[in-house]
Amino acid sequence: MRKVNIYLKSIKGQDYEYSILYAIHDIFSNMIKNFEEKYPQYKLTNWYQVKLFAHILKNSIPHFQKMHSEYLNKQNPKNILIEKYKPQAYEIFKGTYKQNRKEKIAANILNDFLLKAIFATLKDSLSRNITNNLKALHPEFQSKNELCRKVMQDLRKERNFEKYIMYITEPQKSLESWVENYVSDYCMKRNSEGKSILGIEANDIFIYKVTQLIECVKKKQGNNEISFEVWLKKFNKAAEEIISLSDTLFNMFDMKEVEVKDMNYFRTEIIKSLETLKTSQETVLDNWNLKELNSVNKPPHTLICDSILGCMMQCPMCYVICSCTIEHPGKKHTAPRHYPQALSGMHNSKTKKLDLESCNELMLSDRSFGCPDSGMKYVKYKNYKSVNKYYASWSIAADNSLEPSLYWKWVLAQFSEQFVEHWSKHLLKHKDFGYKLKYTNIPLEWKSIKEEEVDESLRIMFQ
Ligand SMILES: [Zn+2]
Ligand SMILES: [Zn+2]
To answer: Which InterPro entries does its entry note (predicted)?
Structure first.
């Protein structure tokens, strides 16, 4: 192998060709011959030799690839021209450099750096602006109650059972995904010129930031005696309020090399360059899409949900969400009205039918429940706090008047069979159950609830 490598490295300036393979084969045959002469007690089988040769060739592939690309590079007319005209190009560069004043060159360097910094800040600002716009426009982005009401109303209109299950079992995911879809539709809405809200907003922020930077440069103007170094430090401080600088501007310049003497000229140049920036990125930003928006650490849907959802813990029995809008360590989770337990698959183990009562009603009864959390031991609803710490962290009002809301009665009436089927699948797979549910009779009056009554119930629920 070593000999083959030495041979391959010795080939210079030529493309890969078959003769190389033959040469490798010769080296290989000699190696086999030497080996068999040295160790006559061993005989290398044909099969082994073929495998070994294939292995050597496989290891030679990177050499062949390198050889081939180096050869192509050498033949590339562009590279040949660059190499050939390097001295002339250098002379042209020197000429341009001499023609341009050092102040102009420094202004260009600073301008390039600021452009990169604006782009680095832009997406975060865009996410924050879109969040603020949506919050100002729509009550559902201002409070947890309003968001839940809106999502539940949409679920009622859509009548999609899978979406209901997601809302019941993974409410946070369901709410976030609703907000994310809303944000996406909003951002990609186009005006009569075909420009998206996202593109327009990105351009507005960009222009605003450039304008602010221009103001900063202008403010520092007036005193020609201030040195470039001092000016740069002051400008750096002011620019940090507008854009996030990955590095201090000071580090970009080698102060021994930079000869910016005429500060007024320098500032005029930087203002000129920044003015041209205002329109230079318009097309790029017009074409921004959701990929850019969602690449930030906190896209609008996350910012909105973080600001309004608060505690999203769920009742361990019916899965209702805690209504607190902030995290509340040390304080009990609570919900004004619990769900009918059928939503979470709670059922009577004897009749195998879903329980239609709410947790609030059951707390007044003498009934017991058993589940994996209680080690399948039966516990009275009244004593639910004895199950474990999490059960004890919930404060559930025992109240007969808190029967399930019309909204959930309607949902159960619409999807009773799907609920039975959905939870049966879970119970069948679960080692503590292993059985299917039976069809659950839904009260007749639940079936005749009208959609207007459902919406009215929603309004009352989240007052
Ligand atoms: Zn509950
Ligand atoms: Zn809570």
So the answer is: VLIG_GTPase
